[in-house]
Amino acid sequence: MEVRPVVYGQSSRPPRGDYSRAASDYTCTQNYAAYTEVEHATWRQLYARQRALLPGRASSDFIACLPLLGASERIPHFEDINTRLQAATGWQLVGVPGLIPEVDFFRLLSQRRFPVTDWIRTRDELDYIVEPDIFHDLFGHVPLLFHPVLADYMQAYGAGGLKAADLGATELLARLYWYTIEFGLVREADGIKAYGAGILSSAGELAYSVTSPIPQRLPLQLERTMRTRYRIDDYQHTYFVIDDLQQLLDFASSDFAPLYDRLRQLPEIAADERLPGEASIPV
Ligand code: HBI
Ligand code: FE
């Protein structure tokens, strides 16, 4: 099988990763020796900046799990994290050259294997990057893979993705991923906090998501969330808020097929739209 790069969204540039290194399931070995000292310094700088922003903004589950990632000083070896991750929740990290096709992505998740991009952004991309890199994938996603509930949700999501592919409903399911795993907020005793990787790996959006009066924050509801389009090139206009991580797993246990049938009859909702009767949760 020919392994081809994947381009998502409106990006007109070719993806950065070298897909010729990838196996037919898109995984590749982490070429650790290739990281330069400048790249390790980029990692250290991103990690320190982001960790300092977490208190009061990131979910308590994320803050509790982050030390299990380790690796604050240099780009980590995937195998080192895998030893701890295997013991904690049975997940394994696998290297990938970048974004991979949806079905391959879902299949890996359903096998409790999380694809991690193995290259890091350049010095002039510290604040914004168009494709996920190793910092987004590791710092944003991997701490909560140590959390048993989130770990099970991710696997359920992957299995659900394979079913959605058969039903032609991956666009609907991808919105749930976007508004939970990437940009999810959770209500805690002392306020709304972020648990989504896209927020947690972003210096600007972390504070914005939990304090700015501009975006709306709505309780997560499957139908509403799956109807809502999203922006990939701007801070989010709408965030969906859960009560706790268990709520995600409870959602994932239902059969989505009838839901997809219903949603196909309903119009999409714009990223910044507010429906009659909806109220944004105050921060
Ligand atoms: N590939 N490496 C990688 N990382 C992702 O987060 C990812 C992907 N391919 C597809 C994809 N995400 C999205 O379509 C998910 O919504 C399913
Ligand atoms: Fe991500």
From TrEMBL:
EC category name: oxidoreductase
Biopterin-dependent aromatic amino acid hydroxylase family profile domain boundaries: 1-283
Pathway noted in the entry: Amino-acid degradation; L-phenylalanine degradation; acetoacetate and fumarate from L-phenylalanine: step 1/6
Reactions it catalyzes: (6R)-L-erythro-5,6,7,8-tetrahydrobiopterin + L-phenylalanine + O2 = (4aS,6R)-4a-hydroxy-L-erythro-5,6,7,8-tetrahydrobiopterin + L-tyrosine
Annotated region described as Disordered, given as residue ranges: 1-22
Endpoints of the signal sequence: none
E.C. number: 1.14.16.1
Residues that coordinate or bind Fe cation: H136, H141, E182
UniProtKB keywords: Iron, Metal-binding, Monooxygenase, Oxidoreductase, Phenylalanine catabolism
Family note: Belongs to the biopterin-dependent aromatic amino acid hydroxylase family.
The protein, known as: Phenylalanine-4-hydroxylase
Organism name: Comamonas terrigena
